């Protein structure tokens, strides 16, 4: 996985617990093109790598913009990013990767965000607006004071009339609001959501029957519940080169491959970033990740090698 250095050119206090960071390339060059909805890996001051969505227009290649919520109990080092970065600080980041992007077709596109989950939705809204497509952005937060980018979305984004804020709505009242948001959508519409796990599950549950599960797009930035590993057994992995490796019950595919000199890029090692995904040529994966979509998992032609396992005795894999 290619990494490069960036400099912090601007820091804004979006809320008491969220800061946004504008990043420019340390070598003064522009960034390469990327698709809206992408995220990057950031190596923080404590050398912890975590993923952050790009929330800038994807056609503006002069700078990246990310937002970081301080999570004092997090292992991701968000507090270090808040406390140790200044204007001019340098960081190492990856090229953008997409686990969620705007569908190429669709009569309507509805972006539904909660909390810090608004970040990838802003980038996608910029793209939809530029392409002249029909969309709405719905932003749920506990209060205006806790919502990032309100001033941007109300005054400076260029699509303020398509933004709807939903502040302070109790959890048990959210389904009714979501049902209203989904009114009028069809099987040709697309719904995109990012936020706390329970919120995204609620959106999927309500939107799936309306637009079809295939047309509900979810961005995860936290690992799911730990799988029950008590019944795990070993299996074989064969690479398209013909090499065969035994994967013990207590080891991951990526661990075994890397130990044997097979280059497999990794980042989160929790099944959420998609860095380690490989293609499946034969065999049946047992998916335990949060990076592949429901349709990708049903296709069984990809596997997140850091957490997922095999239902069949052997998987034949190829790198992407």
UniProtKB/TrEMBL annotation:
Pfam families: Fer2. The keyword Metal-binding applies. Signal peptide: none annotated. Its cofactor is FAD. It comes from the Bacteria. CDD domains: fer2, PDR_like. InterPro entries: 2Fe-2S_ferredoxin-like_sf, 2Fe-2S_ferredoxin-type, 2Fe2S_fd_BS, Beta-grasp_dom_sf, FAD-bd_FR_type, FNR_nucleotide-bd, MRET, Riboflavin_synthase-like_b-brl. The keyword Flavoprotein applies. Keywords: 2Fe-2S, Flavoprotein, Iron, Iron-sulfur, Metal-binding, Oxidoreductase. Residues 235-320 form the 2Fe-2S ferredoxin-type domain. Residues 1-103 form the FAD-binding FR-type domain. This is PDR/VanB family oxidoreductase. It comes from Arthrobacter hankyongi.
């Amino acid at each position: 996985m290619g990494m490069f250095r960036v400099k912090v050119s601007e820091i804004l206090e979006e809320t008491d617990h969220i800061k946004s960071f504008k990043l420019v390339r340390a070598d003064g060059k522009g960034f390469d093109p990327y698709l809206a909805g992408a995220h990057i890996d950031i190596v923080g001051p404590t050398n912890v790598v975590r993923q952050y969505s790009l929330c800038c227009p994807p056609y503006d290649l002069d700078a990246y913009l990310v937002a970081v919520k301080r999570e004092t109990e997090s292992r991701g080092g968000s507090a270090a990013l808040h406390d140790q970065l200044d204007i001019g600080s340098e960081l190492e980041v990856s090229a953008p990767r997409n686990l969620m992007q705007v569908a190429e077709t669709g009569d309507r596109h509805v972006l539904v965000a909660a909390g810090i989950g608004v970040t990838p939705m802003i980038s996608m809204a910029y793209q939809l607006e530029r392409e002249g497509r029909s969309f709405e952005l719905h932003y749920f937060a506990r209060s205006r004071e806790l919502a990032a980018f309100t001033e941007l979305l109300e005054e400076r984004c260029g699509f303020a009339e398509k933004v709807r804020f939903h502040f302070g709505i109790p959890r048990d009242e959210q389904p009714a609001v979501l049902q209203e948001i989904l009114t009028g959508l069809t099987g040709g519409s697309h719904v995109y959501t990012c936020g706390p796990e329970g919120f995204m599950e609620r959106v999927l549950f309500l939107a799936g029957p309306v637009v079809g599960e295939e047309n509900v797009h979810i961005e995860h930035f936290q690992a799911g519940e730990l799988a029950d590993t008590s019944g795990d057994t070993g299996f074989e992995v064969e690479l398209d080169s013909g090499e065969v490796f035994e994967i013990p019950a207590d080891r991951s595919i990526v661990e075994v491959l890397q130990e044997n000199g097979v280059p497999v890029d990794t980042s989160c090692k929790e099944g959420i970033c998609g860095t380690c995904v490989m293609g499946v040529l034969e065999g049946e994966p047992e998916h335990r990740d949060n990076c592949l979509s429901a349709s990708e998992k049903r296709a069984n032609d990809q596997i997140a090698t850091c957490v997922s396992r095999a239902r069949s005795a052997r998987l034949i894999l190829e790198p992407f």
